[in-house]
């Protein structure tokens, strides 16, 4: 095997690790060695980035957590909403997008926060409370400008405002048709993607992989709009009591919900 082929093989191996986001470079000796080579050897770094580009990927950072890659347009690795959840109607798709932007805004309310290597912990309750408060603020603005038209962003806010905050399942957890259900599913997805860690007690620790992904969204109009609405109490590093959101929370039977979701998917 030639030296060039060996280097390409090592590069592909490192990218393979990067595509398994729950593997941290510190937990695997081989990953750690390849990551170190990427950080210190410019020629190897060039090979890694060339191989990644050939696969439709771009290397966006190499943090203590590991190598972080993202798909280019039309990449075979590009994320599709169908991979997130099947049977989504347009309303649910808008709500999922709004919730993920809300998590980003509450986790990193200022641009400078994205450069800080600090531990960020957030809860679903914090995100729900922030988004509901933001809905009220935006509604006030609409009342002052009744001629403003309805766009997708406003439709998403309206859908969030009219959805119940919390519907508890008898077996535990939240129903899919409440905002807490959508938010907790979003956090669970971030955990599965290696972007967050379940810290227990309903709290999630945001990881480097998530910080870097949010950094790539810098300047996104919808994210900046949300950031402008974040009040200090929404980004304190505290755990909010779930009862503050639940209140008189209705409970639904899990079997009833399964039937409802099945019929929704059929539509």
Properties at a glance:
three-stranded antiparallel β-sheet, 12 helices, 267 residues, mainly alpha, elongated
Tell me what the structure shows.
It is a single chain. Helices cover 53% and strands 11% of the residues. With 267 residues, it is mostly helical. It has two domains: 3-71, no CATH class; 81-266, no CATH class. A three-stranded antiparallel sheet has the order 3-6-5. A two-stranded antiparallel sheet has the order 1-2. A two-stranded parallel sheet has the order 4-7. A hairpin with a 2-residue loop joins strand 1 (57-63) and strand 2.
Q: Outline of this structure?
A:
With 267 residues, the chain is mainly alpha-helical. Helices cover 53% and strands 11% of the residues.
Strand elements, count: 7
Helix/strand/pairing class, anyone? mainly alpha
The rough form would be described as elongated
Biggest sheet overview: 3 strands, antiparallel
Topology:
Layout: H1 3-18, H2 29-40, H3 42-54, E1 57-63, E2 66-71, H4 81-84, H5 90-107, E3 120-123, H6 124-144, H7 152-162, E4 168-169, H8 179-192, E5 196-200, E6 203-206, H9 208-216, H10 221-227, H11 243-246, E7 251-252, H12 254-266
Parallel strand pairs: 4-7
Antiparallel strand pairs: 1-2, 3-6, 5-6
């Amino acid at each position: 095997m030639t030296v060039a082929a060996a280097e390409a093989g090592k590069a592909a191996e490192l990218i393979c690790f990067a595509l398994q986001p729950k593997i941290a470079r510190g937990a695997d000796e081989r990953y750690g060695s390849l990551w170190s080579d990427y950080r210190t050897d410019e020629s190897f770094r060039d090979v890694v980035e060339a191989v990644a580009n050939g696969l439709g990927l771009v290397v966006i950072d190499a943090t203590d957590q590991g190598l972080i890659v993202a798909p280019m347009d039309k990449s075979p690795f590009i994320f599709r909403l169908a991979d997130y959840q099947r049977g989504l109607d347009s309303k649910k798709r808008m709500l999922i997008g709004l919730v993920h932007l809300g998590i980003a805004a509450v986790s990193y309310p200022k641009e400078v926060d994205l450069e800080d290597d600090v531990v960020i912990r957030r809860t679903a309750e914090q995100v729900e409370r922030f988004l509901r408060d933001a809905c009220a603020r935006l509604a006030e603005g609409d009342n002052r400008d009744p001629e403003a038209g309805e766009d997708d962003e406003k439709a998403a806010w309206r859908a969030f405002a009219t959805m119940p905050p919390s519907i508890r399942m008898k077996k535990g957890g939240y129903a899919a048709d409440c905002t807490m259900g959508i938010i907790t599913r979003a956090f669970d997805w971030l955990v599965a993607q290696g972007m967050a860690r379940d810290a227990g007690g309903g709290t999630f620790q945001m990881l480097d992989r998530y910080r870097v992904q949010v950094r790539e969204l810098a300047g996104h109009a919808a994210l900046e709009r949300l950031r402008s609405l974040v009040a200090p109490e929404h980004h304190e590093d505290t755990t909010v009591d779930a009862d503050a959101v639940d209140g008189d929370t209705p409970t639904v039977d899990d079997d009833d919900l399964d039937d409802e979701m099945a019929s929704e998917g059929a539509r």
